[in-house]
Design goal:
Number of strands of chain B: 1
Structural class of chain B: mainly alpha
Largest sheet of chain A: 6 strands, mixed
Oligomer: heterodimer
Number of strands of chain A: 10
Largest sheet of chain B: none
Shape of chain A: globular
Distance between the termini of chain A: 33 Å
CATH superfamily of the largest domain in chain A: P-loop containing nucleotide triphosphate hydrolases
CATH architecture of the largest domain in chain A: 3-Layer(aba) Sandwich
Radius of gyration of chain B: 21 Å
Strand order of the largest sheet of chain A: 6-7-8-4-9-10
Shape of chain B: globular
Radius of gyration of chain A: 19 Å
CATH class of the largest domain in chain A: Alpha Beta
Distance between the termini of chain B: 40 Å
Number of domains of chain A: 2
Chain lengths: ~240, ~280
């Protein structure tokens, strides 16, 4: 069964290009910055996180800008290696953190679908087979054969969402950008996510929108300055927010 | 519908990381193996890089061929006069030298951005880093493929017909690319961490152009020509140039080229094993 287990995970971002000593001192007065053993200034982006997500859970990550939501998504995706702690993600991971990443703006939608397939390690034939399903889901019609650079923001979001979910990942990690779609697409997206999660899969969604959290998620984790300050049923955690 | 057409992986993939036991060597080896196994991805990306660079232009990447041709003929005329060498004798030499030098120079400079240019992808999905390095190498192979045929053209113009000995240039080219991979891996990481290395490499290559026998023949150095074996740019160029011009490259040249490639490989791999986990924070 897919699950996520996080024990004492800490992520620190080194600030490499700070030279002046006075600036260093001033920055260090703030709590999230410290000097590590190599005398570098580091920002503690995530501090000793502990949680477990079981199959079938839809988890919202909430918190202010800079609380560590996107960093946590990237850590779960395997982009950032923790400096301390243990991390285990069981299940095929689909990450939807930045829709534009890995998309070639000069290529058509269809070419991008094949490219994304290659990113995922599929053969060209398998990716070509996916193109029609993705085209149908994203409602792009003839735009599928036009360079992505000419797409509206909403169209790009639709294409990215369709590409990320067609493979039916078991663990879907999403940032809130995809909420840029129009109402009709949002309805479709909600159904698709519902389907995914009903197969006992996991959704982790970083967002600011409390209405989305209450509607889409079963559980919410609130981050503040890189620490978990609340973790529980979505209704409870978002009460009064 | 899709479930039937797409094979779902049988075993559930597991991503596990423990900061107490990072298993760096396994991670680095796995990275390299997966990157090479999935060579189609960097090949496709390299092709897109080239296509996008010349989007909408009539000649497209053949602009590179044209500008190289102009440089070869221009410098060929000038230096055959300066060095008092007959043009039909000098032109083949300068064509091979300049085109190979361009390949080496471009790889060295491109190597510095092999990882930083993939920043967007690195932060979005956990691909093997070797994919980005291979993309850099493949891109340079494609560029070289647009320039190398010029050598044949110049040879034919000068009345030199293809010989079987030329085939010995192929292992030389292969060695050059292997070297390019390790240099791109090492410099890619180093330049991501220390942003001053890129400009340093740029000016070092410029200096190296004049210190290497590109426009002048190594014989001009007389007995001191042996010192050239310590110049990796020269020996890597010579393992390709020798077979084309002189029927083969000497033992010393091959030994030096192999030693330098081995050194590059060891340094790059040691560095990669140690710092692979930090790359995402550097780019």
């Amino acid at each position: 069964m897919p699950h996520i287990a996080v024990e004492g995970v800490t992520i620190e971002f080194p600030l490499y290009h700070i030279g002046a000593r006075s600036l260093k001192k001033r920055l260090l007065a703030k709590s999230r910055l410290r000097q590590d053993e190599g005398n570098r200034v580091v920002v503690a982006a995530l501090r000793e996180l502990d949680f477990r997500i079981e199959a079938g859970e839809r988890v919202a990550l909430i918190g202010h800008n800079g609380a560590g939501k996107t960093t946590l998504l990237r850590t779960l995706a395997g982009v950032y290696q923790p400096v301390a702690g243990r991390l285990e993600v069981v299940g095929e991971i689909g990450s939807l953190i930045d829709p534009a990443a890995g998309m070639d703006q000069e290529s058509t939608g269809r070419e991008n679908i094949v490219l994304r397939g290659l990113f995922r390690g599929l053969s060209e034939a398998q990716s070509t087979a996916m193109a029609d399903a993705i085209g149908a889901f994203s409602d792009l019609g003839e735009f599928l054969d036009v360079p992505v650079r000419t797409y509206s923001a909403g169209m790009q979001v639709r294409l990215a969402f369709a590409m990320a979910t067609v493979m039916e990942p078991q663990v879907l990690l999403m940032d809130e950008w995809f909420l840029a779609g129009d109402a009709a697409f949002m309805q479709k997206a909600r159904e698709k996510l519902g389907e995914l999660v009903n197969d006992a899969d996991i959704l982790v969604l970083a967002t600011h929108d409390m209405a989305i959290v209450r509607e889409w998620c079963t559980r919410a984790i609130r981050l503040e300055a890189g620490r978990i300050v609340a973790d529980g049923p979505a209704e409870e955690v978002t009460r009064g927010m | 519908m899709l479930d039937q057409s797409l094979p779902r992986e049988v075993a559930t993939p597991v991503y596990r990381f423990d900061a107490a036991t990072p298993r760096r060597r396994d991670a680095a080896v796995g990275d390299l193996l997966t990157g090479f196994r999935r060579w189609r991805l960097p090949a496709a990306l390299a092709w897109l890089d080239l296509r996008n660079r010349y989007r909408g232009s009539v000649l497209g990447p053949f602009w590179m061929t044209l500008s190289t041709a102009a440089m070869v003929f221009g410098l060929g005329f000038l230096y055959s006069n300066l060095l008092k060498v007959p043009l039909p004798e000098y032109l083949p030499f300068v064509a091979v030298s300049l085109i190979l030098w361009n390949v080496i120079n471009q790889i060295a400079n491109d190597a510095c951005t092999s990882l930083t240019s993939a920043e967007g992808i690195i932060r979005q999905m956990p691909l093997p880093y070797s994919v980005h390095v291979l993309r850099c190498v493949f891109r340079n192979v494609l560029i070289a493929a647009h320039n190398l045929p010029l050598i044949l053209l110049v040879f034919l113009v000068c009345g030199i017909w293809p010989r079987a000995a030329w085939l010995a240039a192929l292992p030389g080219l292969a060695l050059l690319m292997v070297n390019g991979f390790f240099v791109a891996l090492f410099l890619g990481m180093l330049c991501a961490r220390f942003r001053d290395i890129g400009p340093i490499v740029g000016s070092a290559m410029q200096l190296l152009f004049f210190l290497s026998p590109v426009l002048w023949k190594p014989e001009l150095l007389g007995p001191r020509a042996e010192w050239l074996l310590l110049n990796p740019a020269y020996t890597l160029m010579e393992v390709v140039r020798g077979p084309l011009l002189d029927g083969g490259a000497g033992f010393g040249v091959w030994l030096s080229a192999l030693v330098f490639t081995g050194l590059a490989a060891v340094v790059a791999i040691v560095f990669f094993v140690r710092f692979r986990g930090r790359i995402a924070f550097w780019v």
